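Q: Got a minute? One more chain.
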Amino acid sequence: MIKSVLSVLLISLSLQTELPELNQKIVRYVDSVMGTKVDRGECWDLAAGALKYSGAYFDRSSMKTISIYGRKLNPKKEDILPGDLIQFENVEMKWKDGNTTYSATMAQHTAIVYQVNEPMNYEIAHQNTGEWGKKVGVSNFRLDQVTKGKVMIYRPVKEKS
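A: Always. Here it is, folded:
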């Protein structure tokens, strides 16, 4: 048990040092607001605060449809990192735990990857949820449990001058 916890800590520390600068700043911002309400407490407010703090770009012209936060990633071909942003559109998820089947939906939601457990399995930081209310909290999200809708993951890029 101690050996596996130590392995996870070492992997986590090595990932922290290899994160792109903007991703590091976004994770630092999330750490600084954990457990508090950011702005109005909407899910988007956490992402907006993180992007502003880090100096990252986001496409403000698309606010009425799908928000774009940087370079779109393909999680089947590219590593997803802490500090990447996730936009959910009409997402439905299903999973089993023992003999019980669970489901969840997210019509439109924005979150930040806080930790990568393994490919397709993330801890996400977000607010305006049933679990955390209007305060920033962390929940598990498994991309392989999505059965419907769009999940777009973005790598932050520098603000255009």
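A: The mean pLDDT is 87.
Q: Perfect, thanks.
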